Amino acid sequence: MLDVANQVDWFYRTLNVRVALLGLEIWSDQDKILVDKNPTDTLNRFLEWRTRDLLPRLRHDNAQLVMGESFDGTTVGMASQSSMCTKDRSGGVNVDHLVSVLGVASTVAHELGHNLGMSHDTSDRHCECQNEPRLGGCIMEPSTGSMPGQLFSSCSERDLSLSLLHGGGMCLFNVPQPEKLLGGPRCGNLYVEKGEECDCGLLDECNDPCCNASTCKLVPGAQCSSDGICCENCRLRVAGWMCREPLGECDLPEFCTGTSPFCPPNVFLQNGEPCQDGVSYCYSGVCASLDDQCQQLWGANATRAPPVCFSSVNKEGNKYGNCGQTANGSYIPCSNADVHCGRIQCQGGGDRPLLGSNAQIRTARVRLNLKNFTCRGLYFDLGDGVSDPAMVAQGTACAPGKVCLDQRCQDVSVFGVEECRDKCNGHGPWAYPTAKHCYLTASARTNVITTKPLHPHGLAEFQPHTSGSSSHLLVRAASNSAVPGYPFPSLPSEPCLFPDHSIQQGETTQPVRESNENESACCVKAA
């Protein structure tokens, strides 16, 4: 299983993403969930077990179950689409269906790709694959043969970029604590571990002029290695240099601390903070809106359909209009209050959805007050059990002061945003997931606390678990595009205080984090 993890990591390096193995759990006595021939049921049980049992024990971004048994039909894997940074859906199940390590590694990479927002390489997408079909083709192809896919296509690269731009990788901007990596420290594995000052890979792949690949030590005169965005010409950038711009109005910028080559971990506004002039709400660092979701499905000119479309279609209780499914698979009609949290209804856009040829389009025409309205809906049957991405996204506004959660229109107060805002004493919104601090608004930045960097606090994982009949991998990916960093603001003894302090040249103005003793429900957020 360590070889599988290493191979998955190797696949993702071409996308500038690292997959780090945190631990391996072997189900040697008995399976922790019921594993049967139904891939959907097995996936749902596994994700429930992950949320209930695994996450409290081990913080991570993604879990993958690898099993020796097979599913019904030709399915060899299943995962939730675009679910990487969610608490309850970030994971997949995989069948070890080939003798070679490459087989299961390619399947895990495929399902992890779905979690990261990648769709299948269908013919209508005109994807470019640099690997010949006889050699396995590309990883995100809908089916696999005797030779597994070993490369990502141009479509996969575009899908990942789009997912990251829409906030799908908000939890990935950090790095693993080196001492938690499985396999022990090793110079040349591209992770800086105890006793190392840098690690630029093996001698034949290192191109860092600041790092000695043989010793994993900095060259004489160097302050830092060039793999950190806060390092320039082997010297640390000045404190306050912006190393990561916000991806949207629900994201926050990060700045170099002047003491580390790495950009601090990504932080964003608390779920439930208003955005788009108060029309929408922030959720997992993204301003969740129906118009944006329609554009992701149908293209740039798509918009949400009128309310009558949601109320007419989502009350039907079929695959084209519903508020979820029961345990036996039957569709749940939406109540009047929840119609905007069911299947998304759009208008305009392209003739076909952007996600490939396996979408079933349903165009409904409804009439209200002598006016005709066109409602465009989608149902995805993605073949290997990837969950349908055409449901209204979590955190989307469904009524004034209300948001969608689990296909129900609930009061935004469920996020505790008012309670958290009170902790900031009116000086700014609450930010998370890793910092859990008040983020200063412009009016509050004249009087701030300056902070000192804390010790490494990154997290990155990749974990297998095997038994005689089933196993699973816990996977954590970290992007190197803006190499995530270690420094963290220190913890003041009082929550969110803002004493008078003039900003001096060269000082870093960091957000102020609440103390551990005062952490409440608003602090306990999935990373």
Task: Please explain how this structure is put together.
The chain is α+β, with helices and mostly antiparallel strands. Helix content is 15%, strand content 19%. It has helices at residues 2-13, 39-57, 101-115, 154-165, 290-298, 307-313, 417-423; strands at residues 17-21, 62-67, 77-79, 91-95, 211-212, 217-218, 231-232, 235-236, 242-244, 254-255, 267-269, 274-275, 280-283, 286-288, 303-304, 346-347, 359-368, 371-380, 397-399, 402-405, 408-411, 430-433, 437-438, 462-466, 470-479, 512-513. Strands 1, 2, 3, 4, 24 and 25 form a six-stranded mixed beta sheet that branches. The protein has a four-stranded antiparallel beta sheet with strand order 11-22-23-26. The longest helix is centred in the N-terminal third of the chain and has 19 residues, at 39-57. The two termini are 25 Å apart. Disulfide bonds join 243-263. Residues 184-271 form the Disintegrin domain. The active site is at residue 111. Residues 499-527 are annotated as: Disordered.
What's the short version?
The chain is an alpha+beta fold and 527 residues long. Among the domains are: 2-173 and 459-479, 3-Layer(aba) Sandwich (Collagenase (Catalytic Domain)); 274-414, no CATH class. It has helices at residues 2-13, 39-57, 101-115, 154-165, 290-298, 307-313, 417-423; strands spanning 17-21, 62-67, 77-79, 91-95, 211-212, 217-218, 231-232, 235-236, 242-244, 254-255, 267-269, 274-275, 280-283, 286-288, 303-304, 346-347, 359-368, 371-380, 397-399, 402-405, 408-411, 430-433, 437-438, 462-466, 470-479, 512-513.
Number of beta-strand segments: 26
Q: Estimate the strand proportion.
A: 15-25%
Distance between the termini: 25 Å
**CATH architecture assignment of one domain:** 3-Layer(aba) Sandwich
Radius of gyration: 24 Å
Q: Under the CATH scheme, which class of one domain? A: Alpha Beta
Poorly predicted ranges: 439-527
Major sheet description = 6 strands, mixed
Mean pLDDT level: 77
Helix coverage percent: 10-25%
Provide a count of the helices: 7
Could you say which structural class the secondary elements and strand pairing correspond to? alpha+beta
CATH level 4 superfamily of one domain: Collagenase (Catalytic Domain)
Shape field: globular
CATH fold assignment of one domain: Collagenase (Catalytic Domain)
